[in-house]
Amino acid sequence: MIKIESLGELESTPTPFYFYDTNLLDQTLQRVKESSAKYGFDVHFAVKANANRKILKRIAFYGLGADCVSGNEVELAIQCGFNPNQIVFAGVGKTDSEIEYALDNKIFCFHSESVQELIVINEFAAKRSIIAKIALRLNPDVKANTHHHITTGMIENKFGLSIEEVLEAKEVLPSLKNIKLIGLHYHIGSQITDLEVFRNLSEKANQLKDELFPESSFNYINMGGGLGIDYSNPSSNPIPDFEGYFSTFHKNLKVTSDQKVHFELGRSIVGQCGSLITKVTYIKGTSKRKFAVVDAGMNDLIRPALYDASHAIVNLSSKGDISTYDVVGPVCESADCFAKEIPLPQLQRGDILAIYSCGAYGEVMSSRYNMREIPYAVYSEERLVPFTEIRD
């Protein structure tokens, strides 16, 4: 977290920009490694959470694998140092070219989500005279108790295979000679903070394995990710409860000694290390409703508009008397609002605000809507680097 006492040279940095606390990222990665290693678990970073090259290179340095949902993510992961043999490729709509690229680069495994996809992967693998490893993504119909836009494991969601589709896949698989079924994959949603949900997932995974594949001995089980972060009190809880998370699966998921359990964590690894720094452009409104207009917009951070998400916001410039504001951006949309009626030290034009917990689904989802510029990225140990240079 950025401390008001250490604002320093950030005052002269053009806003808005993303600030990454790389020390916190290192501490989080170390905790992930220690907590997962205790149970022999493997962790893949969900690239969709943050595709910043410098962040990805740091994560790859710690030896994590990569979880990708597009061909470009696979390519980026390889460029940033992830071992292809630790890359898994999920997604309901993999294109022909994406599948071919992944095959040519010898990734570890495809997470297949339809019977037709199995046939397509087999076709392209046959042309290359290779055997492609696949895991079936099952839809376990388990409630994640999170926002409906980030719930992925219910029967009404597009993700994974229903029981009917799994039975169809079992009939087709023996005829597909160029793919090898190595295991099962689950993912039920994101920003899950109740560990009981993961206990339920473990029990459902045990049940589905016994009912659908009683005769199979898989060596690969991927339980997805979904562990949430504390958006309300990021300074008090900068690192999620990885020990509790992994322990829940260790206690409840039935595995044999030759089975390896994998996870694909994203938000929980990078969420708290990133903040969006923005400047107050204008103060407007009446005594009943005050608006603090800032120079960051929903194109820079879309989570509040898209998910009704709440982020802690602090005034880095002042510790003065408290007043209440709606913090809004300049984009020509009523949804361009970061927070409503929140208490902040009295604001004035030029004050610098930090919107915390933006390391996941922040920079990576930024756009040029209203022809606004893509935000820069700044790192705690480096000077300002244009985001366009980071992505090139």
Task: Report the portion of residues in β strands.
Answer: 15-25%
Low-confidence stretches: 143-154, 384-392
For this structure, the CATH topology of the largest domain is: TIM Barrel
Q: How many distinct beta strands?
A: 16
Q: Per CATH, which architecture of the largest domain?
A: Alpha-Beta Barrel
Provide the succession of SSEs.
EHEHEHEHEHEHEHEHEHEEHEEEEEH
Fold and architecture overview:
With 392 residues, the protein is of the alpha/beta class. The chain contains 11 helices and 16 strands. The chain has helices at 22-37, 53-61, 71-79, 96-104, 115-127, 163-172, 195-212, 242-252, 267-270, 303-307, 387-391, and strands spanning 17-20, 42-46, 65-68, 87-89, 109-112, 132-137, 179-185, 220-222, 260-265, 274-285, 290-294, 313-315, 322-328, 337-345, 352-355, 376-379. Strands 1, 10, 11, 12, 13, 14, 15 and 16 form an 8-stranded mixed beta sheet that branches. The chain has an 8-stranded parallel barrel with strand order 2-3-4-5-6-7-8-9. Strand 3 (65-68), helix 3 (71-79) and strand 4 form a beta-alpha-beta unit. Helix 3 packs parallel to helix 4, helix 4 crosses helix 5 (115-127) and helix 7 runs parallel beside helix 8. It is elongated, with a radius of gyration of 22 Å. The model is unreliable at 143-154 and 384-392 (pLDDT under 50).
